[in-house]
Automatic annotation (TrEMBL), chain A:
<dbReference type="GO" id="GO:0015031">
    <property type="term" value="P:protein transport"/>
</dbReference>
<dbReference type="GO" id="GO:0006900">
    <property type="term" value="P:vesicle budding from membrane"/>
</dbReference>
<dbReference type="GO" id="GO:0005771">
    <property type="term" value="C:multivesicular body"/>
</dbReference>
<keyword id="KW-0967">Endosome</keyword>
<keyword id="KW-0653">Protein transport</keyword>
<keyword id="KW-0813">Transport</keyword>
<feature type="coiled-coil region">
    <location>
        <begin position="69"/>
        <end position="99"/>
    </location>
</feature>
<dbReference type="Pfam" id="PF03357">
    <property type="entry name" value="Snf7"/>
</dbReference>
<dbReference type="GO" id="GO:0000815">
    <property type="term" value="C:ESCRT III complex"/>
</dbReference>
Automatic annotation (TrEMBL), chain B:
<dbReference type="InterPro" id="IPR014041">
    <property type="entry name" value="ESCRT-II_cplx_Vps25-sub_N"/>
</dbReference>
<protein>
    <recommendedName>
        <fullName>Vacuolar protein-sorting-associated protein 25</fullName>
    </recommendedName>
</protein>
<dbReference type="GO" id="GO:0000814">
    <property type="term" value="C:ESCRT II complex"/>
</dbReference>
<dbReference type="InterPro" id="IPR036390">
    <property type="entry name" value="WH_DNA-bd_sf"/>
</dbReference>
<dbReference type="GO" id="GO:0016236">
    <property type="term" value="P:macroautophagy"/>
</dbReference>
<keyword id="KW-0813">Transport</keyword>
<dbReference type="GO" id="GO:0005198">
    <property type="term" value="F:structural molecule activity"/>
</dbReference>
<dbReference type="GO" id="GO:0043328">
    <property type="term" value="P:protein transport to vacuole involved in ubiquitin-dependent protein catabolic process via the multivesicular body sorting pathway"/>
</dbReference>
<dbReference type="InterPro" id="IPR008570">
    <property type="entry name" value="ESCRT-II_cplx_Vps25-sub"/>
</dbReference>
Length: 161, 184
């Protein structure tokens, strides 16, 4: 498919750059560890063979590499912190945008349903209920007490079924 | 190259005729299928993604050379076998000379699903990952695609791109690639 650059933001590219630097640092650390191991092995061998000076030299080299390794951890932490901050800021930004959107949607809905509209609807409903009651009253006046009792008994029978 | 001590060769690996391409078509078909199965299984077990055919002959790679029965595949037989594997979609020539071959014991589509699931499970959707960290990162160490061949990884990412589940991109001129995975 086409490369849709609309999906990749400037922030994404900035984060990618940082992560690439992070990867390089991690790789560098792996290399340092290999060298350190090697110098340790050399030092042990030389010590065994009584080659004191060479053993000492290997240990000095090892010390130096360990210092480089220590420094690299500090750099790594800085980069990872920065990456974390950027990613967190992006999330917060997206939440903010969503809240803004939700708020506007709510406002639009409320616009369609003004307080006046609700009051009108309530009074119309009240009128309708009143009308219904009037009809019931009018109808109830048409039946004699006898007929009313008969109707009630019919209802009783239905309920018992 | 990794030791292949843990790999169990099938019984037919010890049969002499197996190492000679059979003339009868039906027998040959079956034989080529058996070689394909063996090569893919061996590659999978040893996490081999690329093979140099001339090198493997020079170094008497045990996959093609059974010293116990004193039989080995000729360079021509190798070409016939691999042409067939390639036609079935499990490999590709890397060079014009048809000497180096990319072995896809797992197809890019399957890798794509695996990777996407891992990204999703780890909560990495909508974040940026580098190609390197998918292959070598601490989080990928226990995954099948740890140290996956880059060519195959890129093919898998293309599959995901077509499904709009990912987008590869670079941020500099050095060609360092990153990828962003999307939820669908």
């Amino acid at each position: 498919g086409n490369r849709d650059d609309g999906k990749i933001s400037k922030t994404d590219k900035a984060v990618l750059n940082l992560k690439i630097q992070r990867d390089k640092l991690k790789n560098y650390q792996t290399q340092l560890n290999v060298i350190i191991q090697r110098e340790v092995t050399i030092a042990k061998e030389c010590a065994k063979q009584g080659k004191k000076n060479q053993a000492l030299l290997a240990l000095k080299k090892k010390k130096y590499q360990e210092k480089l390794l220590e420094d690299s951890f500090a750099n790594l932490q800085n980069i990872e912190e920065l990456i974390s901050n950027i990613e967190q800021a992006e999330i917060q930004n997206r939440i903010f945008e969503s809240l803004k959107q939700g708020n506007e949607a709510l406002k639009d809905i409320q616009k369609e349903m003004s307080l006046e509209d609700v009051e009108n609807l309530m009074s119309e409903t009240e009128e309708a209920i009143q009308y219904q009651n009037d009809i019931s009253e009018a109808l109830s006046g048409k039946f004699s007490q006898e007929e009313e009792d008969a109707l009630l008994e019919e209802l009783d029978q239905m309920e018992k079924q | 190259m990794n030791s292949s001590e843990s790999f169990q060769f099938p019984l037919y690996y010890n049969k002499e005729p197996f190492f000679t391409i059979q003339p009868i078509i039906n027998t040959r078909k079956i034989q080529l299928q058996m070689w394909q199965d063996l090569i893919l299984a061996y590659s999978r077990s040893n996490k081999i993604y690329e093979l140099d055919l001339n090198e493997s002959i020079k170094t008497n790679l045990n996959l093609f050379n059974n010293e116990k029965i004193n039989r080995k595949l000729s360079r021509d037989s190798l070409k016939i076998i691999f042409d067939d594997i390639i036609e079935n979609g499990y490999a590709e020539w890397i060079d014009k000379e048809k000497n180096r071959v990319l072995i896809m014991w797992r197809k890019p589509e399957e890798w794509a699903s695996l990777i996407y699931k891992w990204v999703s499970d780890c909560g990495f959707l909508n974040t940026v990952l580098t190609i390197w960290e998918i292959q070598n990162g601490d989080d990928s160490k226990k995954q099948d695609f740890h140290q996956l061949n880059t060519t195959i990884l890129l093919k898998s990412l293309k599959v995901l791109e077509k499904q709009s589940k990912a987008q590869t991109f670079s941020s500099d001129d050095e060609g360092n690639l990153g990828v962003k995975f999307f939820s669908i």
